[in-house]
Structure formats: C-alpha cells, structure tokens
C-alpha cells in the first residue's frame, strides 16, 4: 500500500490540473464595436469639454461612420449631436446645420431640449436645419 501512495498522489495532481476553468470567451464583435464607439465618444467629449472643438470633430470623424454604425443607437445619437454642437461653437454654422440634418435623417424623432433650443448658436442652426428638412 505504501508504494501506491506516491502514484495515487501523482494521479490526483494530474486530475486536479485537468479540471481548470475554460478561458473567458473573446468579446463579441457587437460589444467590441460598442466599446470602440464609446471610447471614441468619450475622447471627443473630453476635447469638447476642454474647449478644443476642432479636436472633438476630428476625433468623431477619425472613427468614421463605421465606428458609430455598429454602435447602439443612443451612442450614435450622442456622437452625432456632439459633432453638431462642436461645429456650432467652432463657428462652422453651415456644417452644424448639415450635421443636424444628418442627425434628423438617422433619428426622425430627435429634438433638442428646451434649454438646448435656447442656445444662441445651435438653437437657431437646429431650427434652420429642421425647416430645411420639411
């Protein structure tokens, strides 16, 4: 019996080593796309908050449509709205209106909040884009 103990212990170690948990599943493409879109949006929002509107615009555009195409609708809407606001405060009003038109094409029920409509630049740009849409 003494001679079997080392062999039994070795077998138990081998069996215990074989019962490891499987590695985690790789991220699904949808989740990865959403993560990339959120990360891009966060970088653009940070640039906007720091007053670097040109960087906010280029960050949103650097991802291209593909980054936000696969994103959840709320993320896509937030990115499009931030781009419009960035154009407006960068005094690129025609681009701001065009971005609002794209936003309304993608989200027909989109509207600014009451407070946002009162903004001296993007409020009128949004209303002009809305009139052009009709």
UniProtKB/TrEMBL annotation:
InterPro entries in UniProt: TssQ-like
This protein's UniProt keywords: Signal
Signal peptide positions on this chain: 1-16
Name the UniProt record assigns to this protein: Lipoprotein
Organism: Variovorax paradoxus
